[in-house]
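To whoever is on call:

I kicked off a structure prediction for a single chain this morning and the downstream step that reads the tokens threw a length-mismatch warning. I double-checked the sequence; it's 175 residues and nothing unusual in it as far as I can see. Pasting both halves so you can look.
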Amino acid sequence: MLEDAILTAAWDEFAEVGYGNLTMEGVAARAGTGKAVIYRRWPSRAQLMVAAMRRRVVPLAEDVPNTGSLREDLLAVLRRASGRYRELGHDLMHGLIAEFPHVQSEIFEAEPSWTMTILRRAADRGEIDLPRITPRMARLPMDLVRHEMVVTHAPAPESALVEIVDDIVLPLFTR
């Protein structure tokens, strides 16, 4: 129960003051506890916010799209990833990455899981030869979208998602 109060307080504090002004003291005051209690569980504000995000944001690996087409499945999940950036915002994403470099894998967790689900389905439909797809190739769609968002400081526009899938990923996966 205290954990829920702290994570809710962290999210609410972030929404009110932004990541740059988020402090453990502010979260503790909002949660009605001491900052030492928070630090015992989450040694940094980045780790606290990752935990708060996990409570608030639906994982990409849940409900993997199954449209019947590799192209449409990839576009659907990449749109969700871009939407996540929009939902969380530039301030939080870049603040977390700067403080906690491994946070990208925390935010975009389970990529191999959703990617492999999509690729297995595509292989079952005869769209790709799955044994030919390396782990690096499987990570490529999300890596390219993540790069787009981090470099531009904005969610990836639809045109970029379509270009990534149509001009890079599909030719690579289906050759």
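Update from on-call: the warning came from a stale cache, not from the record. Cleared it. Sanity check on the structure: The chain has a mean pLDDT of 87.
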